[in-house]
From TrEMBL:
It comes from Cyprinus carpio (Common carp). It comes from the Eukaryota. This is Olfactory receptor. It is found in: Membrane. Pfam families: 7tm_4. GO terms for cellular component: membrane. The keyword Zinc does not apply.
């Protein structure tokens, strides 16, 4: 969003990206995240757990918790898939859509040096997006297709996928 405004409307940037607008965007995103997480927690809390209550994950996520239930978990499995796809593909779709608009706007710039400057502005962000989404999507695919049977290996993949991009963020920028 920030790159879109900076490149497509540079002279109006400060009037579009006001503190109030940023606060509303942040509040909206936090509200969406809370709503995405509240329903799985409620549904997982209602399940009966008969066997082990040891969660086989580095964090207490919905999937590893509801798999411990001793009843039909098909609804929880569908809810987890929908939540994961929404949380992954929603922002990724928005990022791709905004970058398509940015690329169209940049190609209209006459000066090659200005085009390069605009692309360079976006390049670091795109690198971080790829560093985040590739391992997360890979972990999601490996987990759903049951290609990784070792719980410790899957936990390591998930841990790397959520920590590595944040660690590289200061280095890349």
């Amino acid at each position: 969003y920030d790159r879109l405004i900076a490149i497509c409307w540079p002279l109006r940037y400060s009037t579009i990206n006001t503190n109030l607008r940023m606060l509303l965007i942040i509040a909206g995103i936090w509200s969406l995240v809370i709503l995405l997480e509240i329903f799985p927690v409620i549904f997982a809390a209602r399940l009966p757990y008969c066997s082990s209550r040891e969660v086989q994950s580095c964090c207490c996520e919905h999937g590893p918790v509801y798999k411990l239930a001793c009843t039909d978990i098909s609804y929880n499995r569908q809810l987890a898939a929908a939540k994961t796809l929404t949380a992954l593909l929603g922002p990724l779709t928005f990022i791709i859509f905004t970058y398509v608009i940015v690329v169209v706007a940049v190609t209209r710039i006459a000066s090659i040096s200005q085009r390069w400057k605009a692309f360079h502005t976006c390049l670091t962000h795109l690198l971080l997006v790829l560093l985040y989404y590739m391992p997360v999507i890979l972990a999601y695919i490996l987990g759903n297709l049951r290609l990784v049977q070792n719980v410790d290996l899957f936990t390591a993949i998930l841990t790397v996928s959520v920590t590595l991009p944040q660690m590289l963020n200061p280095i890349i920028y």
